[in-house]
Amino acid sequence: MAFRHVYIEHPVYISIKLKQLNIYSEHDQYTFTIPLEDIESIILDNYKSVITAYALMEITRYKITMVICGSNHLPQGICLPQHQYYKKFTMLNEQFKMSKQVIGRLWRNIVKQKLKNESTTLSILNRPYTSNIEKLIKLVKPNDVNNVEAQAARIYFIALFGQDFQRRDENPLNDVLNYGYAIIRSMISRDLCAYGLEPCLGLHHHNYLNSFNLSDDLIEPFRSYVDLYVFYNMQTFNKGLSSSNKKLLVNMINGYVYIDNQYETVTNAIHGMVSAYNNCCINKSSRIVLPEIRDEK
């Protein structure tokens, strides 16, 4: 099973030899070699790096998530396997055939779990307004027609990061949060493609310019995990997206969440959630397993 997460910050030359990823670093004057079957993800954070077409082909064949960062060091694109699943057209039909009622209930379940995780996060950190979010959970209806998710978000982020915090502001904290969310989003997108699901067909998100609407739906219950991780490392992350902080964020996916009656790594939890969503599409069911944040105090 793949377990390595590769972060590249200096100019390198990437190639393949004997099923090994070869990374030649001019900075270190050394070639690093990693078996392809061991790699879960690659974050390429240097636009001067060079990669062969054969390496790109093998990376997708081994279902490795590759995130490409821009000159601002934020994720700009994702390289994903598109033709690994042998029933791609079948799954596309299954997605199209999902009824509005099933889609509405699925989105309700996702929003409720997101709010539960927000409430638990505030409780773990002894922050205020936990009860306010708990009350809102009961108000979530199919399709979240009353937009309870947004009401909770306004309470949650102020309680977590203070009265002056705004998610839309450009500051080091938001850069760190966005980087963390982007890592989780890329992992979800990879698994959706591996199951033959079309990531642009979302439940709630329907932006025609967004190729990953479904990823943006399924990431919601994971966001509080990222928030909690960032809060615990706030003193470090206040310095912004340094190379050491980006490595720390990549390591986040080795942490654990509770899903389907057991603790799993974030990577395995994503596998389990996407597998459950795949079954929802086939069985036209809204029964999906989602990650939980638990207060073990």
UniProtKB/TrEMBL annotation:
Q: Which domain of life is it from?
A: Bacteria
Alphabetized Pfam families for the sequence: Cas_Cas1 (PF01867)
The similarity comment for this entry is: Belongs to the CRISPR-associated endonuclease Cas1 family.
Annotated GO biological processes are:
defense response to virus; maintenance of CRISPR repeat elements
Which InterPro entries is this protein grouped with? Cas1, CRISPR-assoc_Cas1, CRISPR-assoc_Cas1_C, CRISPR-assoc_Cas1_NMENI
Q: How does it assemble?
A: Homodimer, forms a heterotetramer with a Cas2 homodimer.
PANTHER family (alphabetical): CRISPR-ASSOCIATED ENDONUCLEASE CAS1 1
Gene that this sequence comes from: cas1
What UniProt keywords apply to this chain's record, in alphabetical order?
A: Antiviral defense, DNA-binding, Endonuclease, Hydrolase, Magnesium, Manganese, Metal-binding, Nuclease
The cross-references to NCBIfam families, in alphabetical order and at most eight, read:
cas1, cas1_NMENI
The protein here is known as: CRISPR-associated endonuclease Cas1
| The enzyme's E.C. designation | 3.1.-.-
| Primary role | CRISPR (clustered regularly interspaced short palindromic repeat), is an adaptive immune system that provides protection against mobile genetic elements (viruses, transposable elements and conjugative plasmids). CRISPR clusters contain spacers, sequences complementary to antecedent mobile elements, and target invading nucleic acids. CRISPR clusters are transcribed and processed into CRISPR RNA (crRNA). Acts as a dsDNA endonuclease. Involved in the integration of spacer DNA into the CRISPR cassette.
Q: Which residues bind Mn(2+)?
A: E149, H205, E220
Molecular function terms, GO-annotated? DNA binding; DNA endonuclease activity; hydrolase activity; metal ion binding
Q: Which cofactors, by name?
A: Mg(2+); Mn(2+)
